[in-house]
Amino acid sequence: MINQGMISLTLSAVLPQLRPPPCKENQVCQEANSGQLAILYISLLLTAIGSGGIRPCVVAFGADQFDERDPEQKTKTWNFFNWYYFSMGVSILVAVTVIVYIQDNIGWGWGLGIPAVAMLLSIIVFVFGYPLYRNLNPSGSPFTRLLQVIVAAFRKRNLKMVSNDTVLYENEELDAAISSTGILIHTKQLSFLDRAAIASEEDFETKTSSPNLWRLSTVHRVEELKSVIRMGPVWASGILLITAYAQQNTFSLQQARTMDRHLTNSFQIPPGSMSVFTIVTMLVTISVYDRILIKIARKYTGLDRGISFLHRMGIGFVISVLATFVAGFVEVKRKSVARAYGLTDNKDTVIPISVFWLVPQYALHGIAEAFMSIGHLEFFYDQAPESMRSTAAALFWTAISAGNYCSSLLVSLVHKYSAKVGGTDGESSNWLPDDNINKGKLEYFYWLITLLQVINLAYYVICAKFYTFKPIQVRLKDQETGEALQDQTKQGIELVRLY
């Protein structure tokens, strides 16, 4: 579907009947008609739907190629997340440099056509290579199973809780298709859901049949729902980081437009290309982390992955707080130079301050993303029920979407309420004026985001401290005897699987 959308976009840029005619000098540009707009919107819709299907599935599918029951392969799963995000960063870097250059200097037909051809080639390679992959067959809808647990628990809401957890219903044969790695072990949290696993005679239609899953669920299925619920607070903590990150494509861009962007007398950096500093820093951080930092941390922690994903996310949150805090002081410096040269009222005049003052905030956001975003992906993949890993990966992209929506909401609120406060020294009362950023108070906005991130960091620390890791009875491969079942306690699981 994504390739269909990209092909449609390419055709809309190449075929004259699918786009408005080129603008001529001293003439008003002709707007696109309804049919041309429809083609554009449908193309973007197909691309968006296709991306929504590919992104969460490709990361889970790639990680599934490593067998978690094999001790040698299990440690490579976490390297995969680093290099998956690295390859994605490289593709973004190529897109914002090479592809953008082609679009601006050669034409939009070539600029859109090259990615469409590349996507088509990737599909062909995937189809021919499919037999080589390790495939896990789907076993029904995981959402149906979650709903069955909720319904069963509600139906038995008046039952008295059992004092002995071992009498709760378990059926490994029934759960075999959704638990190839291992069976989830009962936990004490969210105990009201345990009622769904209290067996009674009426839960079975006959003595030999499987139970009515709308009345009785296994412990494994109850723990699947608990795992999803426990991930919610940690998922929510990632939204505000994306809210802060989104400002790079809005107000940081406006700052760059007002600053001296010359590298040489004849060449200056386009404002939109400043994101290159974020991407490059992110790529360097991922490389250093995977090749050097993990080995150093491993000596002190004894963990195969160096540090846990919860610690990795926490480091990303701290660096993101520093990024927006620094951005506020850079804006203070930029405006002070504008006042010194009497350029506060001249929105179209370049302020004599180098655009490289913005590099620290861009770079810090790149470092934060390398820690937090990859840690977030690892968290979702590891803590999600085995049958819901692609769905859990979709939560990562959902957090990104929610963060961008929150950014728009925050900007709207600041526009609305800051305009009610009187301005001083010739500055606008609106922190984020549309006409002249020099007369606003963008630094206040950055520091507001910093404050919100500090609160979010405290919230995350609480969530991480009280988070209950997914306990599982793992089936480990034994090269001599085939497969051996290894019983692990909850604490052992935290050390072996998570760290």
From TrEMBL:
Q: Name one GO molecular function term.
A: transmembrane transporter activity
Q: Which GO terms describe its cellular component?
A: membrane
- Supply the InterPro entries for this chain: MFS_trans_sf, POT_fam
Keyword terms of this UniProt record: Membrane, Transmembrane, Transmembrane helix
Bilayer topology: Multi-pass membrane protein
Q: Where in the cell is it found?
A: Membrane
Q: Which residues cross the membrane?
A: 38-62, 83-102, 108-133, 228-247, 267-289, 309-330, 350-371, 392-414, 444-467
Q: What is the protein's major site of localization?
A: membrane
Q: What family does the database annotate?
A: Belongs to the major facilitator superfamily. Proton-dependent oligopeptide transporter (POT/PTR) (TC 2.A.17) family.
Q: What is this protein called?
A: Major facilitator superfamily (MFS) profile domain-containing protein
